């Protein structure tokens, strides 16, 4: 199976009734600033370089970000912060991403999420997380070159450990800059580029750049 074929399967997923109802409700009610736009309102596949050695793993699509634009981390403040950093560090060809097909391209980097539908209050339930785990496994099976996984936030850190190091005990705690070797892959913890973190200075551009640059050094 190709990444494109897998993405089509992900787009058709309706496994989690609560998430299906929420993502579709948001797509109809919309936010006032986007009232003239057609929302995606479906699950989100990953995006980036099929030969990527660096994986960025997030939590889930934002209700008015990826759930609107159809591409992970696209169309919200978190994505603005992330793509600017990816451009500064040489992973992206442009610093801004607004929608699918806008010319953004990633080099040696692939971005995806642990949960593929926008969850209410950005909080997936454990059963929703588990139902989505198969999509991540299928994606990573096709991304054979991945050697570094940057986990954006504690939720993504837990998902990354579950995939790459399921038997590791004790479970390493999430922390910004924490590194764990899991076979051929190194996991790096990074604060999520949410407004809660970026507006308060908990995560600065320099801090995110340092993590992305560290990921590249680990490939050497």
Structural commentary:
By secondary structure, this protein is an alpha/beta fold. Helix content is 38%, strand content 12%. 42% of the residues are buried. Strands 1-3-2-4-6-5 form a 6-stranded mixed β-sheet, with helices on both faces. It has a single domain, classed as Uracil-DNA glycosylase-like domain (Uracil-DNA Glycosylase, subunit E), CATH 3.40.470.10. Helix 4 crosses helix 8 (205-218).
- Under CATH, the homologous superfamily reads Uracil-DNA glycosylase-like domain
Look at the structure and give the CATH class. Alpha Beta
Mass-distribution shape: globular
Number of helices: 8
> Tell me about the biggest sheet?
6 strands, mixed
């Amino acid at each position: 199976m190709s990444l494109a074929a897998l993405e089509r399967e992900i787009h058709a997923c309706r496994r989690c009734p609560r998430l299906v109802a929420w993502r579709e409700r948001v797509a109809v009610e919309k936010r006032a600033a986007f009232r003239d736009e057609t929302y995606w309102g479906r699950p989100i596949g990953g995006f980036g370089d099929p030969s990527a050695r660096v994986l960025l793993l997030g939590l889930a699509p934002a209700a008015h970000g990826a759930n609107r634009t159809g591409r992970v981390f696209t169309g919200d403040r978190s994505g603005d912060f992330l793509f600017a950093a990816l451009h500064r560090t040489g992973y992206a060809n442009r610093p801004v991403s607004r929608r699918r097909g806008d010319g953004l391209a990633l080099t040696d980097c692939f971005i995806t999420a642990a949960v593929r539908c926008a969850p209410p209050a950005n909080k997936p339930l454990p059963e929703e997380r588990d139902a989505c785990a198969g999509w991540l496994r299928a994606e990573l099976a096709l991304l054979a070159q991945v050697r570094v996984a940057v986990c954006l936030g504690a939720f993504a850190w837990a998902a990354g450990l579950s995939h790459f190091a399921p038997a590791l005990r004790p479970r390493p705690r999430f922390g910004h800059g924490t590194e764990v070797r899991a076979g051929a892959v190194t996991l790096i913890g990074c604060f999520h580029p949410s407004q809660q973190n970026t507006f308060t200075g908990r995560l600065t551009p320099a801090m995110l750049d340092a993590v992305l640059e560290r990921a590249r050094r680990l490939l050497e």
